[in-house]
Amino acid sequence: MTISEFYPLPVSEIREKYYPNLANQTYLDHAGTTVYSSLTLDKIHQKLSKTLLANPHSLSSASRDTASLVEETRYKILSIFHVDPAEYDIVFSLNATHAIKIAASLIQDAAESSFNYYYNINCHTSLIGLRTLAAKYATFDDISSFEPVEDKDGKHPALNFVSWTGQSNFNGQKFPLGWCKEFRRRLDHCYTLYDASALSTSDPPDLSDANSSPDFVVMSFYKIFGMPDIGALILRRSTAKQLVEKRRYFGGGTIDALTIEEPFCRRSKQLHQSLEDGTIPIHAILELSVAIDSHYQIFGSFNSIRLHTDEIRKYAICKLKQLKYGNTGRRMLQIYDWPGAKHGPIIAFSLLSQAGDPIGYYGFGKLASARNISLRTGTLCNIGGIQKFLDRTNEDIRQDYEKGHKCGDILDIIDGKPTGVIRVSFGAMTMTSEIDTLVKFITEYLKDSNLNIEKGNPGEKQELVVKSLTVYPIKSCPGYRIPEGRKWKLTKHGFEFDRSFVLLDLLTQKPLLLKNNPRMALLDCRVDPEKHMLYVRDKRGGNKLWVSTNIRRYKTKQMGDFIAISERKMVKFFSDVMSIGCTLAGFVTEKQMQNKTAFLLVNERSMRQVSKDDSLISRFRANIVVDSAHPYIEDKLSVLTDMDSGVVLKKRCKCDRCYMITVSDKGSRDPSLLVELSKERKQKGKVYFGVNIDVENVGYRYMRVGDRIVGEE
After folding, report:
1. Which residue from 102, 157, 277, 606 has the fewest beta carbons nearer than 10 Å?
2. Where does the signal peptide begin and end (predicted)?
3. How far apart are CA 104 and CA 69, in angstroms?
4. pTM score, whole prediction
């Protein structure tokens, strides 16, 4: 299947000429944000270099020129949506969610918090959030399922507010703009809000007929042009004028007259000015003006973009539906489309095993990222789509939360059911080759590795030797390799001082993690067990710090579940290394210090099957590194006994490797190890290497390098 060309240049030439940031990338997350062009950046730089922007509230010539630029940009935006400026105005916002809040505040003030709210179940979380402001709320899937809410006396409230999305950010399903006519017919004093955020990436709605268009339309421009990070609220003048008169709050620049003590205030008669509290983002608005012009120069029109993305989606659907297991003919994935509905350039799907069971999205997303494939996984801020297409009830959602599941975590399968999906979305510059890359990756991902474990004779004991022992005093930071010949104390919970501390983000009050903060690899950490001191050094500049392992000796502050050092010298040291505000912290209770398992054990012989570079073994952050006669022998062993110290270890599970192993010792990203590992060690979508073990018997309460270990199945 080939697709037509709709642009002034072939899309391959457009990519090469205007999108160098997409080189060697497979970008399939345009519903999250599309990609800005180098043409836009160059023109922005030129214009900012030659243009003096000033606060439009001032009266200088630069201020007047800035105000003119802002007004020109408003007209450019209204033109995209075919809006008559006499019927609609536009208010700049931080993003679409902020635009929703502006509209909601107008409704709330006018109704004095007594209004009914209706929202479509396919909408974004930001629209669902408005229900907390309403007296009553109800949901609907389609116009046929829309039912007005009645009070006990059978009367409707004085005001009704209805919202729906133009295109589901879950799977691209489109919903009619013209529904607002039916809402107005069935509800008195009805106000309508249309979320055009996802739709406008490729197909901005036509608002030329004011009588059949909503009262409010919201959008985010980074979803359309890649930048800037601002949004807008397009609002009907006749509607907004009534509501603004009852607006309570006012900010700088929104009024014509005001007294300091008496409640005298006269708002600006310009609609957008009365709602844009404070100084508008003039630099971002200049960037937006340039981005609009550049977009038209590159792609010609939004109709061309719509035609292109429609063809890309058809191509992707065709390719994905062809994916089947060769031995059974069963499909490899399930696509979540609504039969008979129109869809924009978004596809949501789940992977299936050969038996037809769902495969979680987390491992897929992890390995996709390692291959430079950008996509989205999880609930997508669209719980309605999750419940509708994954058949999850309200009770399922509650129970999942009680089991620990929350947005953005790794719990992708609970009780055999997926908690989220994989989403790919396409933009103006998407190429068919990116779809081909995705399809090839799915095929490879669903093919399990041949683990090739040399089992030997059944019941035969396996001999291993301890090659290195490492403690990680600060979670996610480099470890301290215990010198050969030195005994190291252990307990039922692991090695002494292992993962006893964290680097705590002072803003979020959460521990920093290596997979999100690669600079943690720049810290050299050592422990002196006799002196109970922790030595920390910045690998780059040599700055160092000695810290007592009893951090309560210092000035501390409790932050959530942690006791954090608040002394300026230490806060500055760690913050300088990490480039964010952080400090060393310990746990409030000893129970919180305990890891899920006591140790992680990996095998040097197994590592040689994956890579010839022995230094890479440090990325696995193992406490115990052993060597054996055969690779992967650790997978089948259940009990390991240290013949020199009497310590008995029991395997709990194989270790599912995370994105952390893509961080090099220098703090840079290098996905090659994870990619190679996935070829050798992937089973049912998870990549395994090493085993998690617990202490069954502490023996003489120590281990050391060179100890002989006997393993049994």
Report:
1. 277
2. none
3. 28
4. 0.92
